[in-house]
Amino acid sequence: RQHEGPRRVKRAWVIPPISVSENHKRIPHLLVQIKSDKQQPGGVIYSIKGPGVDEEPLGIFSIDKFTGKVFLNAMLDREENDRFRLKAFALDLGGVTLEDPTDLEIIVVDQNDNRPLFRQDVFTGRVVEGAEPGTCVMTADATDADDPDTDNAALRYSILEQGTAGMFSINATTGEICTARPGLDRETVGVYNLTVQAADMSGDGLTTTATAVIYLEDINDNPPEFTKEEFSMEVEEQAAGVDVGKVFVHDKDLAGSPNWLAKFTILEGDPEGAFAIHTDPYTNDGVLSVAKPLDHEVRDRFELTVSVQNEQPLEPAAPASPRALATVRVRVRDVNEAPVFRENPRRISVLEGVPPGTPITTYTASDPDTRQLQTLTYALLYDPADWLQLDPYAGTVRTKRELLHPSAFLQGGWYIALVLARDDAEPPLSATGTLSIEILEVNDHAPLLQPPAGVVCGRPGRGGSLLLGATDDDRPPHGAPFHFQRSPQHPQLTRNWSITRFNVTHAVLAVLVELPEGPYSLPLLLRDSGPPPRERQQLLNLSVCHCGRDGTCEDGVLAAATAGAGITLGALMIILGSSILLLARVRGRRRALRKGLLQRSRDDMRDNILNYDEQGGGEEDQDAYDPHPLRPPALLPPRAKPPRRRAAPLSAAPPPAPRKLPSSPSDIEDFINEGLEAADSDPSVPPYDTALIYDYEGSGSVASPLSSIVSSLTDEDQDYDYLSEWGPRFRRLADLYG
Question: In which residue ranges is the amino acid composition biased (Pro residues) (predicted)?
């Protein structure tokens, strides 16, 4: 049996690749003819399929179905499609496949139809001035759409134009631009504009150009320099903080950069530091200003040496140059200056009470304008108490009236006045001086006992003492410490009383022996510590009270409350008022009886103090003391009402018949009211109460004002036996008059 070998394809049906040039203009153009050996010619139908035929792009290729000729129907662009792969088919007239489909590959041959393209139209680069040759700046590269495997895309770079210096070169293959020579100087050429070309076909084909802009970066290779060696300026004296003028400099480096910014220094001619110089940030010039006020009379000209340099140090590669120096001459113009008080404030001390017209000081000013003849005049600008007078030409200050202390115009013992000094220039200038006058204290006041009265328990020890105080209108050191002592004119006081120091302003008065109850007047001598000390003898009005169990005073209110439980506060006040008035009415009898007692017993305890029963002669005795400050408001008649009592002179009219005394405490109010009516209608009695007011217990008393109760009754008409029923506080009255 004969084996069947592999099937052999006929050569006529195997189609090799077909090449066709892009941009072929002869259309239609025969590319190839395909044929099949299966049948006679005319008995085969040919067709092709694929991109360019029945796929996009359509209609580029076609075939004659009877002859098998393949035609190109449109121009080809290799940059769009570099080859086409088609399928060829052979069928008989009945549509039966005669051959297997075969491949038909059409290759588009490249033509140099695309110029090179730079990636950008303008390339920008930077390099520092003075860069070494071979320093690369940037790369200007291009592309070519033609076949990279052919010379159509083989690019070469070159610099067409860069000026005459030829400072840069370009790599022909890569397009990298680098420095070619030394000597790049920004101050000479700051920007280089290069025209760069790219050409295909290895430099012989199509070309294109671009621009390469190269900026030179500045370095500090140029020091600042003054525009001239000398500058002249003027400034008024006494002007501080003002600009005098400018010194001008020039720097070739980049304006506004740290390499350009100048720094100025005053080297010589200003040891006092009267001037300062700073840099104008916009112009880079030096601005000279006055740091301290200038005085034309002291110095009218300055010659300054000023240097300048950059904020940044020079580059080592910069050429060496000496430091830039300039001379600045400043003339100080003379102007009118205000007078000056060299001592301001002026402090002086004056004793209080100096007589008017006493010179206390001469307060004058000086005129700084020594080269101008001017006259100064003076005036008091501020003298709140109008104490001073001032000589307008000599400046002598005198007292206009006594300087007294204390005063509302003193501040901590100081009196402040302002003096105005004015020159006669045009326009005139003035200055104000402060005159501080210390009013020195003079010891012209003796200490005053405060308070002048008190209550003390009549038993030695606890409760038998009283704290005494004093005040002094003088200021230290003329006041405290105060010295309290018993009057040296009454040595017998030492038997019953002692005084010991408590502190610098107070002392303690103590009872040495047990004293009977009653009022006492104790003469004391008070002395201050001023140089020289002043002293004053004063009376201390004491009320010796009955001592309670705890050593404190058991006053009349407490005693009455203890003796008569259930008595109201109003009734209790009425009882106390009645008792005081009764004591006043029987003054004559008490005086006679006491005189008899004093004659019988000179060793009585009260014999060692002043006679205490002289308390004034009533309303007709106006020389003893003024009782009005001691009157409580409740006992004074209202200002809008006329007094109820008539100020009629005393007469010898016979007193009315005695009234019946109250039998019980509840009848005391009616008894007092009847007595008031009788006293108000009696023209023979003084206009006010004859009882001396010993103390003021405060306003708002619930008791009505008391008048001269039973003032029309005589001592013989009174029966005092009932006093023994009023409690222990009235026991002594009952013993004397009961």
Answer: 630-640
Distance, CA of 275 to CA of 103 (rounded, Å): 100
Q: What is the reported pTM?
A: 0.44
For residue 37, what are the CA distances in angstroms to 6, 383, 421?
Answer: 18, 146, 141
Cis preceding linkage at 665, omega within 30: no
Name the one residue in this structure whose structure tokens are 């009260």.
606
- The residue type found at 509 is L
Domains, in order of start, for the chain: 18-109 (2.60.40.60), 117-217 (2.60.40.60), 225-333 (2.60.40.60), 346-440 (2.60.40.60), 448-545 (2.60.40.60)
535-545/453-457 β-pairing: parallel
Q: How many CB atoms lie within 10 A of CB 210?
A: 21
Q: Give the start-end residues of each E strand in 295-345.
A: 301-310, 324-333
Longest dimension (CA), the chain: 203
- Distance, in Å, from the CA atom of 221 to the CA atom of 511, rounded to the nearest integer, reads 107
The position carrying tokens 């070159």 is 158
3-state secondary structure of 553: strand
The token pair at 374 is 């001017």
Q: Tokens at residue 53, please?
A: 């035929």
Instruction: Give the separation between CA 597 and CA 592, rounded to whole angstroms.
Output: 9
Q: How many helices (H) and strands (E) does the chain have?
A: 5, 40
Q: At what angle do helices 569-585 and 668-680 cross, to 10 degrees?
A: 50
Residue bearing tokens 């004293």 = 515
Beta-bridge mates of residue 359: 398
Helix residue ranges, H only, 88-234: none
Structure confidence at residue 683 (pLDDT): 59
| Beta carbons of 20 and 29 less than 8 angstroms apart | yes
Question: Per residue in 219-241, pLDDT tens?
Answer: 888 899 999 999 999 998 888 88
Structure tokens at 163: 């000026």
- How distant, in Å, are the alpha carbons of 47, 156, 348 from that of 125? 60, 21, 82
- 143-152, 489-498, 564-573, 622-631: range with lowest mean pLDDT: 564-573
Q: Which of 435, 464, 248 has the alpha carbon at shortest distance from 344?
A: 435
Q: Which of the listed ranges 65-69, 197-201, 581-585 does the model predict with the highest average pLDDT?
A: 197-201
Tell me how far apart the alpha carbons of residues 485 and 533 are, in angstroms, rounded to a whole number.
Answer: 15
Q: Is 200 helix (H, G, I), strand (E, B) or coil?
A: coil
588 φ, ψ to 5°? Answer: -60, -45
Amino acid in position 703: A
Query: Number of C-alpha atoms within 13 angstroms, CB side, residue 497?
Result: 28
| DSSP assignments along 261-274, one per residue | -EEEEEEES-TT--
